[in-house]
Design brief:
CATH superfamily: Vaccinia Virus protein VP39
Structural class: alpha/beta
Oligomer: single chain
Largest sheet: 8 strands, mixed
CATH class: Alpha Beta
CATH topology: Rossmann fold
Distance between the termini: 28 Å
Number of strands: 12
Number of helices: 9
Strand order of the largest sheet: 7-6-5-8-9-11-10-12
Number of domains: 1
CATH architecture: 3-Layer(aba) Sandwich
Order of helices and strands: EEEEHEHEHEHEHEHEHEHEH
Helix content: 25-40%
Shape: globular
Amino acid sequence: MDEPIPVTRAVDQGTAKLMPDVDRARAWLLTVDGAPQSYVDLDEPTHLEFEYARRLAHVLDTVAEPNQPLDVVHLGGGALTLPRYLAATRPGSRQDVVEADRALLALVAEHLPLDPAAGVRTHGADARGWLAAAPDSSADVVIGDVFGGSRVPAHLTTLAYAREAERVLRPTGLYAANLADGAPFTFLRSQLATFQQVFAHLVLIAEPGVLRGRRFGNAVLLAAHHEFDTTELARRTAADAFPARVARGEPLRRLIGNAAPVRDEDAVPSPEPPGGAFSIG
């Protein structure tokens, strides 16, 4: 059997690379312009290499009873890591993946094909535009994981965007977003303030070192209209290789402070990671 070889291709938003993992037979790392986007093991879709992906998977594991199918919208596609995970752990789920980079979708479909029976539909479209056209109350979960390089695009950080996500979610639905920031948390605070205006309950998952402002890193934001039990979620995130905390209530109110919700006219992308924190050469 031939050894897998790296693949490099120009896509709509830069240069994509698929690099095989020497330790796992059919596992691949996807980067775009050096920024890690996804890790996929075609033989073991429940293997999640990135910590933020594990945290989002913990959310998907605990948001409903085990094996219960879900209707999920993934804003941001990458190599379809979480859609593959959900198809394996909750068979029968209906999933829509929205990715603006059509050439990246084509690359992934060619080299990392997904079983047509997995219930995953991909859409080459802008995330906010696609969401605006989606039916009311049509999703159990909306996941925001859109990065232009290493930054969340500005138009996916605003009140108008948050309201579209809320409209598409069912009353018992959950919004989850992968964000990245560091002290003084200007971006993260603004996102909490924005989603606090739209949803009744917020939760934040992050490593203690990130929450304490010691380093730049990922944080997973959860938002819903119903209060949800985070006991099992907290147990799972605390047991990860890089343990994370689940914060809610007063600690989040203190973090938000006097931060204001983001309007479309004031929106800016999330900050560039310092020193290429998430880059790979």
